[in-house]
Specification:
The chain is of the alpha+beta class. It has a single domain (3-74), classed as Alpha-Beta Plaits (2-Layer Sandwich), CATH 3.30.70.920. It is built from 2 helices and 4 strands. It has a 4-stranded antiparallel beta sheet with strand order 2-3-1-4, with helices on one face. The chain is globular. The two termini are 18 Å apart. The mean pLDDT is 91.
Length: 80
């Protein structure tokens, strides 16, 4: 079963657009958009396992310049 999550991202002032563009190029990221409110970018991602999620996605997201803070929100179910 794959791991899916939303990651809420706070950026340095004026960096939301470049951060959204950078994270959208990371393998496993299915959505990255600038938003208003307490966070500047929201992204959705998925990986085959929790290990891949942490190593491949989170490691690369945290290396993107301009990010000041992230909040990871795992998706726990499909409520359709």
């Amino acid at each position: 079963m794959s791991v899916q999550a939303y990651i809420l991202i706070q950026t340095e002032v004026g960096k939301a657009s470049s951060v959204a563009q950078a994270v959208s190029g990371i393998s496993g990221v299915t959505l990255a958009e600038g938003v208003t409110g307490p966070y500047d970018v929201i992204m959705r991602c998925e990986a085959p396992s929790m290990e891949d999620f942490g190593r491949v996605i989170l490691g690369k997201v945290q290396a993107v310049p301009g990010i000041t803070r992230t909040l990871t929100c795992p998706v726990t179910g499909n409520f359709h």
